[in-house]
Amino acid sequence: MWFTRSTLNRLFLLALPMVVSQGALALMAFADRFFLSRISPVHVAASLGGGVSFWVCLCFFNGIAAYGNAMVAQYFGRKDMRSCPRVVTQGIILSVIAMPMLLLMAWPMLSLFEWMGHAPEQVALEKPYFMTFIMGSFFFLVKTVLASYFSGIARPRVVMIADLIGVFLNIPLSYLLIFGRFGLPELGIVGAALGTVVACLLSIGIYLLFYFNPIHARRFHVRKSFVYMPGIMRRYLRLGLPSGFEVLIGLGTFNVFLLLFQSYGVAEGAAMAMVFNWDMLSFVPLMGLNIALMSMVGRTVGAGDMSKTNEVIASGFVIAVTYSGLMGLMFVIWRESLLGVFATPGSDFAPILAVGAPMMVGLATYAVADGLILVCSGVLRGAGDTRWLLITSVTVHVLTMIVQVFVITVWKLEPLVSWWVFVSMLIINALLYLWRVLGSRWRHPDRLARVMAE
After folding, report:
1. Where are the alpha helices (DSSP H) in 67-188?
2. How far is CA 121 from the centre of its chain?
3. Residue 7, pLDDT score
4. Residues 6+ positions from 272 with CB-CB distance below 8 Å
5. Which of 109, 10, 13 is nearest to 59 (CA)?
6. Whether the predicted pLDDT of 454 surpasses 90
7. Which of 68, 132, 129 is nearest to 95 (CA)?
8. How many CB atoms lie within 10 A of CB 215?
9. CA angle, residues 278, 116, 428, in degrees to nearest 5
10. Distance (Å, rounded) from C-alpha 192 to C-alpha 134?
11. Helix, strand, or coil (residue 421)
12. Which residues does UniProt call coiled coil (predicted)?
């Protein structure tokens, strides 16, 4: 595992706009929960339960859409410019098909909050927050398709610009809608969700300006791309479906764990929401590195040149471990101060702090594991090794979820026992992914040829 400075610089320059982009999205969610914490801890807990439940519904389709990054990168590496925007067309077709399925999934999810034993006042906030997001699902999927396209053709600055503009709109708009300023209605938690949907629409508009730019449109034959392509659609589904299922099972089991954990009480639920807010500021920027690695490896697969892959992987490990290690130190040293940012004025914060401070130590423990997982999964997705990722991820997450059910509902152990089970799962997952990447089966020429076959 060695690398040159040029490879490290190239990966860093590709990843940096994506890191800024993903960090901006994390900041958007962070700001919404900060505003909601000014109302009550119940609003913070409800935003986590309702928000994660929405992403559980969306993640399967979003996981398929996001695989467009690797596909576009593979065509781009093969210098097949015509096929790159055709991936976008297939992705939008899939987004249209997904919408009625999402609406059908939403109704049983609404009863899940009560079934998990959440407080009535929390359920009353979770449901409208969740449904506001569901009604905007199509726009989130289209945004993912367009972002994946520009990442795949090595234009991450477009993604950064679109997301930054969206965030700069979302934060003040959410504030106005949550608290009802300047004549706008006071919508509370619904205003937070609505502000995010409106910001998503603006980001799509920015993407389309770049997409239909005359120079770009001529180079990639955009105007001739609005056709159904069975071969590309088959590849999209063959490689994207395992990725979508992996994200669905991973986030689905996480959501069940989250909802079960919130049954400990409002203080425990609020503590988890606050800890995961800081987790997002560590985890989500590393998603930018994950996207950059997927794009770079996808291009080497498309070009049939894997000679630089080891350098790319080693560079990814250096960036991820350095960043996540520094974040972990911050979480340990300033854990109480970081949690105190979300303290509701005039309320007793001691019960939340008693649970949240040890959880921040756990967060620091698995921060590096998160970095390794994101590096390895980006490499393997770029190389089309999505079936192995699916099998491994599902196995680890389902087994952990079974243990969590016993810990929380059967044995009724303390909240921190459940938390350390979650931390252990992430460390095991990281070790398995690392073992796969350091092996050679995923990069065999015959397997890579099957990845490119339509």
Report:
1. 68-77, 83-110, 112-115, 120-135, 137-152, 156-179
2. 28
3. 79
4. 45, 48, 258, 261, 262, 356, 359
5. 109
6. no
7. 68
8. 7
9. 50
10. 14
11. helix
12. none
pTM, two decimals, is: 0.80
Q: Among 356, 364, 115, which residue's Cα sits nearest to residue 259?
A: 115
Which two structure tokens, joined as six digits, stand for 413?
């152990």
The domain ranges of the chain are 5-452
Give the DSSP letter string of 74-107: HHHHTT-TTHHHHHHHHHHHHHHHHHHHHHHHHH
For the residues 195-210, what does the mean pLDDT come to?
A: 92
DSSP 441: G
The closest alpha carbon to 343, from 280, 272, 277, 270, belongs to: 270
**Rounded alpha-carbon distances, angstroms, from residue 406 to 254, 284, 399:** 15, 30, 11
* The two structure tokens encoding residue 28: 């958007």
Q: Which amino acid is at 3?
A: F
Q: Which residues 6+ apart lie within 8 Å of 419 measured at CB?
A: 261, 358, 359, 362
Residue pair 367/282 in contact by the 8 Å Cβ criterion? yes
Distances 182 to 35, 172, 176, 177 between C-alpha atoms, Å: 17, 11, 7, 9
Closest C-alpha among 149, 132, 215, 153 to residue 14: 153
CB atoms within 10 A of CB 235: 23
- What is the per-residue pLDDT across 27-56, written as a single tens digit (0 to 9) for each? 777 787 788 888 887 887 788 778 778 888
Amino acid of residue 112: L
What's residue 328's pLDDT?
92
For residues 7, 10, 14 and 16, what is the CA-based torsion angle, rounded to 10 degrees?
Answer: 90
Report the distance separating Cα 282 and Cα 197, nearest Å: 24
State how far the Cα of 97 lies from the Cα of 60, in Å rounded to an integer: 13
**pLDDT digit string (tens) for 310-319?**
888 989 999 9
Residue 453 CB coordination number (10 Å): 9
- Give the CA radius of gyration of the chain: 21
- What is the Cα–Cα distance from 155 to 180, expressed in whole angstroms? 38
What token pair was written down for 78? 């093969």
Q: Are 95 and 61 in contact (CB under 8 A)?
A: yes
Q: What is residue 265's predicted lDDT score, i.e. its pLDDT? A: 81
d(CA 371, CA 324) in angstroms, rounded, equals 6
The b-or-e profile of 169-198 (16+ CB within 10 A means b, else e) is bbbebbbbbbeeeeeeeebbbbbbbbbbbb
Q: What is the mean pLDDT of residues 335-343?
A: 87
The two three-digit tokens of residue 183, written as one number:
């004549």
